[in-house]
Amino acid sequence: MTTPSHNARAGTERGAFTLVELLVVITIIALLMSILLPALAGAREQGKRIHCMANMSSLTKAWLMYALQNDDNLCSADTEWNETPVRGHWVADGPDITTNLIGGTQQAISDGALWSYIGQEIKAYKCKSDSSDLIRSYALSRTMNGKTCDCEHDGIVSFKTWSSIRAASTKMVFVDAAAMEGEKWIEGSFCCVKKIDDIPPQWFNRSTRNITARHSDGCNLSFADSHCEYWKYTDPRTAELAYWQIGSEDASPENADLDRFVQALWGNQ
Ligand SMILES: [Zn+2]
Asked: Domain for residue 222, yes or no?
């Protein structure tokens, strides 16, 4: 027969962990953490990507509403706040952000043509995955009533009205974009190729305008019928270009992502 004090001691001994058991438990927890944390980070980024897509959807619907209420005329992809007469620029940052106090500020957005159509919601202009200090992450395709000039984009076709856009579901409107760290803005008018009709095409970027790869080496885009898509880059050089790790000459040859962008900007005009 055992005494009560003996029973209590035996219970204590059964409940105690040995050092080995403790180490095994810690190892298992560390292993589970190493498996789960990347998955959680991936889920978090996926949430940001979906949020970004919702922003672009709102912007694109505002862009469509502008055309509907302005006799089919598209707002301008350009950003010249001091140009007269005012042509309905979607944002009003430029022309030269280094010589004005408006570019890169909220006023540049609230002076833009889409502000009233998007319910004056400043957050709609910023991607959740954009960790920069900039208040706007998106750019509008230069093919959507952007400036045509004898510059690097010579030869571009710029649609002036919504009804003139051929195959609207294939034509890019807004794109998630990036600028180099330290820049005050992302140019509002987007064209990522050197010359739109160059064969073969060549990427074109500069410190205030580049594609982004911040969504798991891909980006979001919207199209003229207002739907949005996520593009995961298929060529590893595309993300390297987006992160300024290689130049356009190295990233361009036989790059399927570049061909895809050209089609979305320009395909069949
Ligand atoms: Zn985004």
From this structure: yes
